[in-house]
Amino acid sequence: MDILHSILSNTIIAFIILISIVVFVHELGHFLAGKAFGIEVEEFSIGFGPKAFSFKKGATEYRINWLPLGGYVRFYGSDIEQIIPPEKKEKSFLYAKVHKRAIVSFAGPFANFILSFIVMTFIYLYGVPYKPTVINVLPNSVAEKSGLQTGDKILSIDQKNIESWSDLSTKISTSPEKMLSLEIEANGIKKNINIKPNKEEVETTLGNKQISGRIGITPIFNSSNIIVFPSSFFAQIGLQTGDKVTKIDDKEIKFQYEVISYLKNNLKADSEYLLAKNIIQNKFLDNNFNLTVIRNNSEKNISVNFNQPTLKVWATNIIKSNRPEINESWQYRFLSADQTISEFSAKGKEDILFPAQSAWQKCGLKEGQTIYSIVGQGKIISLLQVYSWMDSATKGIPPANNKNINVKMSVLEKNGTLSTLNCEIPLRYGYDHLNRATLYLDFPIKFYSQSITFPNEISKANNLYSALEKGFNSVLNQIQMTYSAIKMLFTGSIPLSNLGGPIAIANVAGEAAKGGLIIFLMTMAFISTNIGMMNLLPLPALDGGHLFLNLVEAAYGKSLPKNIQITVQRIGIFILLTLFVIVFYNDILRLIRFH
Prior knowledge:
Layout: H1 2-8, H2 11-36, E1 41-57, E2 60-75, H3 98-126, E3 128-130, E4 136-137, H4 142-145, E5 153-157, E6 160-161, H5 165-173, E7 180-186, E8 189-195, E9 198-203, E10 209-214, E11 217-218, E12 220-221, H6 233-236, E13 244-248, E14 251-252, H7 256-266, H8 272-280, E15 289-295, E16 298-304, H9 309-321, H10 330-333, E17 341-344, H11 354-362, E18 370-374, E19 378-379, H12 383-393, E20 404-412, E21 418-426, E22 428-431, E23 437-440, E24 445-447, E25 452-453, E26 457-459, H13 464-491, H14 502-514, H15 517-535, H16 543-556, H17 562-594
Antiparallel strand pairs: 1-2, 3-26, 4-11, 5-6, 5-7, 7-8, 9-10, 12-25, 13-14, 13-15, 15-16, 17-24, 18-19, 18-20, 20-21, 22-23
Helix pairs in contact: 2-3, 2-14, 2-15, 3-13, 3-15, 3-16, 8-9, 13-15, 14-15
């Protein structure tokens, strides 16, 4: 498996393997259908250009060419202008009955669908990786206002089981302003919550606008690396900023929310004020606990004993202080070091990100500060808020050079005090993944720790029938997605600049291969379906164009005049060449702009 992964990790090799298999299966469909009807095959070729390897068996030459960008099957008598001797008409393509020619044309795309079906069935038998439906609730979101909490697991929506984050995301995004009934599991207890997703206009990866439902959840969580405020409960028990909590008693800890859940559920307090009040009232004499943390790469054990006089003194002083922040819930008070600056990314003066880095440093941002709040975003409790703000900050600003944006933010200093920064940051002029001119707000900063997700779980079909059913439904979904994309392309919802050619496919294949064999196979299945659908377009020189002419011929009752067929064929070749020029132009433009 390691050898296979190392082979596939090469983008060029991954592309050649993927496209060769997809093209081979497509052409094999045409080949087998033609053979089944007694049509003679002159050439079965994978790739274009000069011949790399070939052999002949019977009347057919089998060859592999140097450019792995497609393939073809040449049937005897497929040239409209070719003169066919009477004794060979039964073996020629053009003299085959119209329904046979239609089946031969359809067999290529159909073979692509079969390949996708077989691959997806195998994947479901082997096991499909999926993200579990444990949620991180963002502040001031619909989810928070509806009673959902970070760490809850969504089990079903409207009595339909939700197995993966993909299922959850799809259901919510397709239900804007529709009341949904959620069954969740919170701290081992199942309960029901009703929620109505907000309606938002979003842009898809293809560039078209659509209405989507949003409730403010994410599968990305703060790590258990913590920020400790001076005079806080955590400082009092001996924790320090940067400590990574790994255990509470015997329970393994990976996420910040698990520490918060312990405080809320075991100590019955959702704020420092309530915790201090409970300590004064002697409610926790038997609730002592032990913390294990990693500090400076060493493990350290901390015992918390609520009989300690120092905790009583702390609790009394906290309540007397009457500071507003002591009433904040742990979610807002207990911050993660994921948002603490460890260093600026190393940038030379020639680096495109250097102007932004220099401006951030000039306005006072530096190592050791924790991002506390941003005007327009409120208090920051997750880096996702920062990234969301960065994406939205430039919306509505016409793309042009020499544009600046004013940013006002608060940062928590190492000593626990807050500082306000007013920054004038230059925006970078660039291009997005759709080749559109765009302004970027750069934040070239590394943080003390990284947000994390739950590890993928594996979903396997219970039996072969279940795998076949899931594989079939997966191909249907892929066909629907491809159809929608093609429809938007022809209606203008997606510009032609979004089309990608061999270089784009190579990049996709390379990235998929880095994700492992299963991700690579899933990508192969999707591209196979995509190629099958594209070939069914009713354009001359494509399989769909041949099918359309077969339909016209069947309705007309006889073959179309040769001059019309020749004209249609030439138009088809012109369209294909134009399409090749467009996709290659887009590919090259992406390479120039991104490199």
